[in-house]
Write a structure and sequence with these properties.
Blueprint lengths: L8 H16 L3 H9 L7 E6 L6 H8 L5 E3 L5 H6 L21 H8 L4 E3 L5 H15 L7 H9 L4 H7 L36 E2 L9 E5 L7 H8 L4 E8 L2 H14 L4 E3 L5 E3 L6 E2 L9 E3 H19 L5 E6 H6 L1 H12 L5 H8 L19 H10 L2 H10 L9
Length: about 400
């Protein structure tokens, strides 16, 4: 490509409102940070690469509690979307390794917009700033009185109280997603639902914080590893955790998420005629050779297969890659997290140890339960029986040939 990606009206509206907030409402400290630094100013990055519904949200949440890390509130994929590095500029979520026709400085500054440093006491001003900068990405169609929201948040009002006052359902936010929605939310956004809000143990960045490790995770990165290495962070020390999860559990989670009807929508790809889905927007990542009619369960199979196939293909662009099984994160939590911390060179953290003992529930579609996929075992098996050699190769390479280990 010889030109920058075309920006849609939705992206333009979000950018305009985001820039207004950045220039006129957030704290002077945060504005100063965004004017001086970018995400590639960190000495090192720890990147979690996985397929959607692979457990990356839980692992990310655990690691962001380490007191030698900085991190955004959630995934950073919304900043790709804001900058047009997504469908329909590309036919799928794949970004070619040599793609350089984008505003790199702007994207790296955007990625920094909701990054904070982990510290037990946290900082309310940081949380308020983050809530503000992300509102236009969450509700680009809405004209929200941002100055009023900022003032009320600083005075102690909660975000859910404020949004409810504007007629916005808090069911769209991760911490309120459990339970049944009255109707689906089909409006396009920049940031994928369910939205996440700012965290308690985070504060604004200082110059010294760029010596810390920046923890990042976005499921679309599975399709962009070479581009990330070659174009986005070409000179940064990046260590990659390839997080795997057995196909049945992941496919089941994807199927639940698609049918949730109030979260995980990503693109308007036109009419969808998928058996098992009555929504109108695509959900989760857009793999190559995606299709818009057939069986939803086959889409979920393709999303798991293609994400891991691309990670396995492109992992060699990084010198330091560690494969971790989500099953081990669940059953052998202490030793598995210790392995990751040692791999990342982070050392001990009391706050992280406390979180390992009592991890948060994040981005769950249903109450976690071992082998929950067996509730629709026949449907999942029917998809696996139709799977091609690409799927079989990924299963073998990831070591999931023994079904007894599919928890």
């Amino acid at each position: 490509m010889n030109s920058e990606p075309a920006i849609t009206g939705l992206q333009n509206a979000a950018r305009r409102k985001y820039e207004h907030i950045k220039e006129n409402i957030i704290s002077d400290d945060k504005l100063s940070t965004l004017s001086k630094y970018r995400a590639d100013d960190f000495d090192s990055v720890l990147l979690i690469a996985s397929a959607p519904r692979g457990g990356s949200s839980l692992l990310f949440d655990i690691l962001r509690h380490h007191e030698k890390t900085c991190s955004p509130d959630g995934e950073h994929g919304q900043w790709y979307t804001l900058n047009g590095i997504c469908y329909p500029a590309f036919e799928s979520d794949i970004v070619p390794a040599d793609f350089e026709a984008f505003n790199r400085e702007q994207l790296l500054t955007d990625i920094l917009a909701d990054v904070g440093a982990t510290e037990r006491s946290g900082d309310r001003t940081h949380r308020v700033d983050n809530a503000l900068v992300r509102l236009p990405l969450q509700f680009p169609h809405r004209d929200i009185p941002y100055e009023q929201v900022h003032e009320e948040l600083l005075e102690g009002a909660s975000l859910d109280e404020i949004l409810t006052g504007f007629g916005i359902s808090t069911l769209q936010y991760d911490e309120y997603t459990r339970g049944d929605a009255d109707s689906p939310f089909e409006t396009e956004t920049i940031e994928d639902r369910p939205f996440v809000s700012s965290h308690d143990h985070k504060r604004s960045l200082t110059a010294d914080d760029f010596e810390r490790t920046l923890v990042l995770k976005a499921s679309v990165d599975a399709y962009r590893l070479s581009w990330i290495r070659n174009q986005l962070f070409p000179e940064t020390d990046i260590r990659v955790v390839h997080l795997t999860r057995n196909p049945a559990a992941s496919i089941n989670g994807l199927y639940d998420g698609w049918r949730l009807n109030r979260g995980f929508q990503t693109y308007d790809v036109g009419a969808l005629n998928l058996e098992g889905y009555d929504g109108s927007l695509w959900s989760y990542d857009l793999p190559p050779n995606w299709f818009n009619e057939g069986k939803l369960i086959d889409i979920c199979l393709a999303q798991w297969t293609q994400a891991h196939r691309h990670i396995l293909t492109d992992r060699d662009v990084f010198e330091d890659v560690r494969r971790i099984r989500f099953e081990d994160v669940i059953t052998e939590t202490d030793s598995t997290i210790e392995e990751i911390i040692e791999f990342a060179g982070l050392g001990e953290s009391v706050l992280l140890s406390e979180n390992v003992e009592n991890p948060n529930k994040v981005m769950t579609t249903k109450e976690p339960k071992p082998a929950r996929w067996r509730n629709r075992e026949d449907l999942i098996r029917s998809a696996l029986e139709r799977a091609d050699e690409t799927y079989n190769g990924v299963v073998a390479e990831l070591g999931y040939t023994e079904e007894s280990e599919w928890i």
